[in-house]
Amino acid sequence: SSRVWKASPGYLGGTPAAAQPRVIEPPKNILLVNKLRTPPVLEALDAFLRHIHEQHPTVKIFAEDKPDLPSGVNIWSPGPESEKIDLVITLGGDGTILHASSLFKSGAVPPVLSFSMGTLGFLLPFHADDFARALESVFEGKTTILYRMRLSCSFYDTSGVQIGGAHQGWQVMNEVTLHRGPSPHLNTIDVFVDGQHLTEAVCDGLIVSTPTGSTAYSLSAGGPIVHPSLSAIVLTPICPRSLSFRPLVFPSSSAITLRVGEKSRSSSGVSMDGQSSRILNPGEAVRVQASRYPIPCINRSSISDDTQDRKSEGVGPGKEDDWVRDINNLLQYNATFRSKALLRHSRI
Amino acid sequence: SSRVWKASPGYLGGTPAAAQPRVIEPPKNILLVNKLRTPPVLEALDAFLRHIHEQHPTVKIFAEDKPDLPSGVNIWSPGPESEKIDLVITLGGDGTILHASSLFKSGAVPPVLSFSMGTLGFLLPFHADDFARALESVFEGKTTILYRMRLSCSFYDTSGVQIGGAHQGWQVMNEVTLHRGPSPHLNTIDVFVDGQHLTEAVCDGLIVSTPTGSTAYSLSAGGPIVHPSLSAIVLTPICPRSLSFRPLVFPSSSAITLRVGEKSRSSSGVSMDGQSSRILNPGEAVRVQASRYPIPCINRSSISDDTQDRKSEGVGPGKEDDWVRDINNLLQYNATFRSKALLRHSRI
Amino acid sequence: SSRVWKASPGYLGGTPAAAQPRVIEPPKNILLVNKLRTPPVLEALDAFLRHIHEQHPTVKIFAEDKPDLPSGVNIWSPGPESEKIDLVITLGGDGTILHASSLFKSGAVPPVLSFSMGTLGFLLPFHADDFARALESVFEGKTTILYRMRLSCSFYDTSGVQIGGAHQGWQVMNEVTLHRGPSPHLNTIDVFVDGQHLTEAVCDGLIVSTPTGSTAYSLSAGGPIVHPSLSAIVLTPICPRSLSFRPLVFPSSSAITLRVGEKSRSSSGVSMDGQSSRILNPGEAVRVQASRYPIPCINRSSISDDTQDRKSEGVGPGKEDDWVRDINNLLQYNATFRSKALLRHSRI
Amino acid sequence: SSRVWKASPGYLGGTPAAAQPRVIEPPKNILLVNKLRTPPVLEALDAFLRHIHEQHPTVKIFAEDKPDLPSGVNIWSPGPESEKIDLVITLGGDGTILHASSLFKSGAVPPVLSFSMGTLGFLLPFHADDFARALESVFEGKTTILYRMRLSCSFYDTSGVQIGGAHQGWQVMNEVTLHRGPSPHLNTIDVFVDGQHLTEAVCDGLIVSTPTGSTAYSLSAGGPIVHPSLSAIVLTPICPRSLSFRPLVFPSSSAITLRVGEKSRSSSGVSMDGQSSRILNPGEAVRVQASRYPIPCINRSSISDDTQDRKSEGVGPGKEDDWVRDINNLLQYNATFRSKALLRHSRI
Ligand SMILES: NC(=O)C1=CN([C@@H]2O[C@H](COP(=O)(O)OP(=O)(O)OC[C@H]3O[C@@H](n4cnc5c(N)ncnc54)[C@H](O)[C@@H]3O)[C@@H](O)[C@H]2O)C=CC1
Ligand SMILES: NC(=O)C1=CN([C@@H]2O[C@H](COP(=O)(O)OP(=O)(O)OC[C@H]3O[C@@H](n4cnc5c(N)ncnc54)[C@H](O)[C@@H]3O)[C@@H](O)[C@H]2O)C=CC1
Ligand SMILES: NC(=O)C1=CN([C@@H]2O[C@H](COP(=O)(O)OP(=O)(O)OC[C@H]3O[C@@H](n4cnc5c(N)ncnc54)[C@H](O)[C@@H]3O)[C@@H](O)[C@H]2O)C=CC1
Ligand SMILES: NC(=O)C1=CN([C@@H]2O[C@H](COP(=O)(O)OP(=O)(O)OC[C@H]3O[C@@H](n4cnc5c(N)ncnc54)[C@H](O)[C@@H]3O)[C@@H](O)[C@H]2O)C=CC1
Predict the structure, then answer these.
(1) Residue D265 CA: which ligand 2 atom is closest?
(2) Cα separation of A99 and D188, whole Å?
(3) CA spacing 20 to 30 A to A305: which of A56, A258, B273, C308?
(4) What are the structural domains of chain C?
């Protein structure tokens, strides 16, 4: 493979920045999060439960309140009173981990271990079939954590007064989006950076994204791909009526305020991680800032099999950067033209 | 103006991230840097010298060795033995400050105060006519410094051995560029991030840029605009033969290695801040990393006139972010279509 | 001005392709189209009417049925029985001429003379204040016509049967857009070209645009600028979940079919020239083709003042291409960085 | 496959625009063109020759003068006196057909049948192994021809006088490129359309491309993909110093003049179909126009096997558009993110 790099010359040393090894305590309270309740998901859940009960009988398992909760699972709902969770396990698509993030939207998040049901994703390092090995690595304390930055939002009325009280912050993992939605009319949005007017955007919408979200909606809108270990905020326009509106990357200390123009012919719908959240009318604003509560994601590389052949590629155990593999495998990043590789059977 | 924001609602507070106020000692040794020697430049230089001699008679002034060095100026050339400079003053275009950076390419850089000759620029906060006020602010210790990250480079031969010894690092302020140059053939370049193979790029070239350089060549090649106070490395392809090669933004802890493919049909010319530096043949590589020596640039806002009307815009003194103004004024960022503003005389 | 080209070397000869001189008969039935009824618009309408009644008393004037129709104006509504119009005059923004186009959505369109109320636009060659000169040129038969291509649409149900009968074609001047609208879920749309499957698009939406529309929504979504005298169809994706979806330009003989994927999680809203027209559910399709009825637009250059200084630029009378001026003036096409042009008063 | 469209609903009928069936006379004089002389190419050439000699003994075969010309092949070189060729066969990569085009750079081109050596390409419809079937289709007169537009160029000195006489036109199939090449300085190029000044481009270079060339260099520089059956000219900037320089598509009747700015700090190298052709100094110009001599390319679909399963997809024999298949297969156009399709073995 073109990735094999036989010897390891000097310039190829170095530890990837993406993830930091971290010893975490064996979890006592685990929250299981899933959205779908299809047979395969329910089967996988059962297998999880059985495994944990057998291997770690003292561990308490929680889940959100849903109709067919398996026995031995305690009901959990977010709140100051609810029991402290020290590991979140998600099972499903990227939307499931976005949902898990939203359960901890006002404070710190426990480490998150994410499993997919057969499709991998940027936010889904593990396949459900591999749960035993992944779980045991966590119980043994052998994990690598990628702290994924989140953004917190607050809303303001036309006179600049915060709506909903000081606690109304909502943390997002991917992005906050303003969009004209069903309105046929363009949005006019004033953008402020740290209180300074940056520009008036006439567009379908605007995306304020984390590095994690840079491979989600922002990418589709033309934004750059930002490594998730960087602390930064990306501002990407959606279909701007301007030839010269380019994506911007700010330091994570910046506060971005988006204010629907007083004369804007349409309101703007706010989505947070893909969930419609509210409508902003002309003169109303949302302020977006780095959250104090990133989301600690357990990395694929942290528990990869030591006998795997990738090890021979000169990258030490636990050192490989999931992200590099993901943008190649999932996004088909820089897929080269196949002129050199066409197989005979695809001819004529 | 659309920038005026009468009251200052809560969400517009906050200190811009761009620049940090820093007290600097009154300079004792000043290095004057200019490239052109046109009459206006020489006149401006004279005025500078007179002003400094009159106001700060104990200050020593240095310049590079050039034919018509004004009297009272000491010759200076980079080197371990040369006198320690504690302020650099540049006079000319962006190229002049890039040149100043190259004079300190192997170590720390003193604060830099840059003047233009009538054209402003991203790297040129001050106009030569305003030199007296700008200089006095510096002598009074009232400055705001923007630490602009630099990149250091090292070169490797086909067997991965560093070329030119360990000290051969060269610091750039904008970018390192690989380009096929006059060769009609595409470059094939393997890109490694922290030792891991990222992709094989088939293209005219690749740019590894600082945030400062994100508004230079990288922007022309389609890269995002990155705020210069962020520590990050931008990788932007030049005319890639792929539909899916997007600009990438890495944390500043990443090391990017570009290695000309063994089978590449052409060599690759390396430019550093726009200066041709060397040719890389197939199998040879350059490694680019954040330098330990950023370049401390004195900001425009640090010495802006307190009576200025911009103050009324809700941004406190010394708080305005030059960069926001620059991308609007210089890049005409997001210049909106003029359909709303056409003047009568431009009709028919 | 940089546009002045003193001598006219050989390579600068040639007639612009944009518009063809055409003698049109003095109009007998004129349709006045306006959307807004603000005082300035009503005043301008009055002036028009007076002028026509005085100068061309035999001409009949029509308008759509609206509350405060001026006296001497006949009511007109689209239909096979309605009186034949031989000149359309629009007064208002770009939306007004789009509306005029929609009045002739099922057949041929008379020549259209468009006036703006102070803002110029791509579709608005004339300022209302200049109406007298513009009108007289038309009555004298001195016009240059730009035939702007239109697209016709037909809709199909999940079994491929046309909805609404064969006559249900609707002509658009700018574009047909499919968009997820308020749905948080991505659209999945199968694209067929002349019956052949081209691609499955997972995106916010898709735009099928005329060259005229290439400077409207398609441009905001990243499409190329296509000269309106070219016969071509542009397909531009809106926020596709793919790194490699580029705008495509087809010959005007192509038929583009967009079919909402059977498994698409959301329906798709269809807009025609910015007017919401219908919802397409999974399995339903729209087919877009060049219309047989382009819209003949009277060009600005056709009646420009012979004594104007632009004449000295080496472009003969009636030969200048409005479009070249428009993309420069209205879109600020290729606005160069102002580093060379900053005025003193914009400093510090 | 997602391309299979079982029934053929009304909206999927229609003949693709790409290629027109054309009866061509059985060829009498065939020109064989190849660039490489590697063993596989020489073997393939031998097989061609044998086949033609056996099946069509009266046909005369020509080739360019090269060291090891096979026996039975006549030497041919371009010129008014040279024997009339009525079929060109190329064997090699895209560069080979570009070379064939250059052999007929001043006049009409015979139909071209292109074979690849194992790699398909946009300009390479056939695989060398299939030569017998492809050739017989041609002799039977069953071909579909795609007329690929070419561009002709003429050069002008600083006073606007044509250089090299009126006959100096050179036809290109892909594009004419101006590029700063090895110069570190940006090019300043004035662009005129039909004699009218369009813009001043400050950039690495400019590409004037045919629709055929839209998938070559222009695509890498960010240009749209234009169907080769459209007659149009694409102008694509290479790394412009402007946020608002977008690709433009002109009708084929337009003449594009590129003139190196009088004050440009660097000369501009002209490449034609990837071959360096000349240097343009400040004030010199090149004028590019549609050539009267397109290049008739024999299409893959014209001779595809009637029993092939693609036939069942509702596209009649000979009707399939090679181009649709090519942008999918070769460019991996709109390759969707693999989140839905990851195979188990690519996990962990
Ligand atoms: N045109 C577009 O690209 C749009 C994208 N979205 C994205 O969808 C997200 C919500 O996701 P779901 O609830 O799963 O909705 P969904 O089921 O509509 O899926 C959106 C797609 O985005 C992927 N995705 C989500 N987060 C990602 C990330 N950080 N990096 C790479 N891919 C990612 C998902 O795997 C899925 O393929 C939003 O946060 C937004 O980023 C939402 C609307 C439009
Ligand atoms: N196609 C392009 O855009 C190219 C750009 N360059 C840039 O030119 C730089 C060298 O500059 P000079 O020696 O002055 O050469 P130069 O005289 O050729 O000027 C290059 C232009 O880039 C501007 N520039 C330089 N650094 C900038 C920055 N950080 N942000 C915004 N604009 C900036 C300069 O003001 C000037 O307008 C290189 O570092 C490279 O970034 C070099 C080659 C091609
Ligand atoms: N994000 C975007 O850029 C969007 C653009 N639109 C465009 O708006 C059009 C409808 O226009 P209005 O009814 O006036 O709605 P509107 O009042 O919302 O105006 C849309 C803007 O597009 C301009 N425009 C319209 N046609 C144009 C053309 N052919 N070339 C250049 N500019 C053009 C108008 O002058 C106006 O500035 C649609 O056909 C669509 O092209 C619609 C929705 C979103
Ligand atoms: N950065 C880039 O993308 C560059 C591209 N080129 C292109 O290379 C062409 C010359 O080709 P070669 O002599 O083979 O040089 P080459 O051996 O350097 O190949 C250039 C590549 O472009 C491909 N190509 C050529 N014409 C094409 C077309 N019409 N559509 C799609 N792909 C095409 C070739 O198959 C090959 O992969 C030039 O006409 C120019 O278009 C030249 C320089 C730089």
Answers:
(1) 18
(2) 52
(3) A56
(4) 19-141 (3.40.50.10330), 151-290 (2.60.200.30)
Angle at C92 between CA C91 and CA C97, to 5 degrees: 80
Residue of D nearest to C336 (CA): D242
CB contact under 8 A, B5 and A192: yes
State in Å, rounded, how far the first CA of chain A is from the last one.
Answer: 29
Q: What is the DSSP letter of D84?
A: P
Structure tokens at B58: 């104990």
B184 contacts in D (CB within 8 Å)?
A: 271, 274-276
How many Cα atoms are found within 13 Å in the side-chain-facing hemisphere of D145?
Answer: 17
**Which residues, listed in sequence order, are joined to residue C75 by a DSSP beta bridge?**
C63
Q: How many of the other CB atoms lie within 10 Å of CB of C108?
A: 11
Q: Which residue is associated with the tokens 């305590």?
A: A25
Nearest to D254 by CA among C294, C251, C3, C230: C230
C314: its two tokens: 């080496």
Is A306 designated active site?
Answer: no
- Pocket flag, ligand 4, residue D326 (CB < 6 Å): no
State the DSSP H helix or E strand holding residue B74, giving kind and residue range, or none if neither: strand B74-75
> If you ran DSSP here, which 8-state letter would residue D324 be given?
H
Q: Which ligand is nearest to the CA of D239?
A: 2
Residue D253 contacts C, CB cutoff 8 Å: yes
Give dist(CA C18, CA A224) in Å, integer.
37
Q: Which parts of chain A fold into alpha helices (H)?
A: 39-55, 94-103, 131-139, 217-220, 322-329
Atom of ligand 4 nearest to the CA of B203: 1
Residue type, C135: L
- How far is C-alpha C101 from the chain's CA centre? 8
The answer, for C250 touching chain D at a CB cutoff of 8 Å, is yes
> Could you list the pLDDT tens digit for every one of the 348 residues in chain C?
333 233 345 555 444 444 556 667 899 999 999 988 888 888 999 999 999 999 999 999 999 998 878 888 999 999 888 999 999 999 998 999 999 999 998 889 999 999 988 776 788 888 888 899 999 999 998 888 999 999 999 999 999 999 876 546 789 999 999 999 888 889 999 999 999 999 999 999 999 999 999 999 999 999 999 999 999 999 999 999 999 999 999 999 999 999 999 989 889 999 999 998 899 999 999 999 999 999 999 987 666 544 343 333 333 334 467 888 888 888 888 876 654 333 333 333
Of C62, C114, C113, C99, the C-alpha closest to C83 is C62
Residues 10-69 of D with CB under 8 A from A: none
* A308: its two tokens: 């795997």
CA distance A208 to A256: 8
Using DSSP's 3-state secondary structure scheme, residue A330 falls into: coil
* Whole-angstrom distance, CA of residue B104 vs CA of residue B292: 12
Closest CA to D173 of D107, D100, D98: D98
Alpha helix stretches (DSSP H) within D5-144: 39-55, 94-103, 131-139
Question: Which residue has a Cα nearest atom 5 of ligand 3?
Answer: C217
Number of H helices, E strands in chain C: 5, 22
* Burial of D41 from C-beta contacts in 10 A (0-12 / 13-18 / 19+): middle
- Regarding beta strands B126-127 and B112-116, do their DSSP bridges make them parallel or antiparallel, or are they unpaired? parallel
Mutate to test the interface with B, among C332, C337, C340, C344 (most CBs of B within 10 A): C337
Torsion angle, CA of B77/B80/B84/B87, rounded to 10 degrees?
60
Q: Cα–Cα distance between D147 and D209 in angstroms, integer?
A: 15
Which residues of chain B does A194 touch, with a Cβ-Cβ cutoff of 8 Å? 14-17, 321
Using the 8-state DSSP alphabet, how is residue D173 labeled?
S
3-class DSSP state for residue C328? helix
Beta bridge partners of A32: A63, A89
The length of chain B in residues reads 348
Q: In a 10 Å sphere around its CB, with 0-12 CB exposed, 13-18 middle and 19+ buried, how is residue A215 labelled?
A: buried
> Chain B residue closest to A192 (CA)?
B12
